[in-house]
Amino acid sequence: MSKLFVVFGATGQQGGSLVDYLLNNPTFSKQYKADLSKPETLPAAVEGADVVFSVTNYWDTASGEAEEAQGNAVADAARAAGVSQFIWSSLPSIAKDSNGRVTDVDHFESKARVEEYTKTLGFPFTAFFHAGWYMQNAKSAGLPPVTPLPDGTAIFPFAWPDELELPYIDITDIGKYLAPALRDPEGWNGKRIYGATAIYTCKEIADTMTRVTGRKVRYATLAELPPSTGSWPEENVLRPSPFMLQGSFFGKNGPAELKSLHAQMDEAPTTWEEYVKKSSPWF
């Protein structure tokens, strides 16, 4: 019997990539997508659904309270509709994982609160997708670009120190990461699905670009950017780094859990090297 799969946030990178995966994978025979911009339509959107994947965009409102309300509303509607499996796109609580040392990363905390709320609702099956840093961000209009220099080299700029470990994901692979939980809801019930092909240092990211493109690319801080390139506000980028420098973005067991997940995936995730190749040109 076919299942009805509802995707909230289908116009964004995560939701849209999941829709593409489902429509191109015969294992999942039917899919329904809904836009989260009209919360009053949520009950109708999830009616008859077996599985709901929900992702919200903090940056639409830049308000943790607003995002939390949206995420909770989707979860409430799904539970009321009798949805069997609810998958929430979450992030870790930096306040909790740093033992209170870092408490003001709003866009992490709002998603973490929805995760905790979802656990109280009594779904038969839940799972929580934690995506790493998008490879697509390297070409995002909202972030400092890979910048060629007059001497023929280039810089890969960001605010974090070069030894920081960053889980990297080609977000178009999201379906690959979720497939094991969709096939085995019981086995993944209540668990986090860590989405990353590997954990790289910022220096390793730049070194890979050098190897693939043949042009010397070095990692650089935002302070080294030419003034004309602009940047994201540094506070939005720097604030998580004290927490992440404690260890893996996914926690101390992150690397082992990534390895375990990869072993259960039918399709290998895209590596950073593969992404650099397919996303050429860079300069």
TrEMBL record:
Coiled coil: none annotated. The keyword NADP applies. SUPFAM superfamilies: NAD(P)-binding Rossmann-fold domains (SSF51735). InterPro entries: NAD(P)-bd_dom_sf (IPR036291), NmrA-like (IPR008030), NmrA-like_oxidored (IPR051164). This is NmrA-like domain-containing protein. The keyword Cell division does not apply. Keywords: NADP. Pfam families: NmrA (PF05368). Belongs to the NmrA-type oxidoreductase family. It comes from Parascedosporium putredinis.
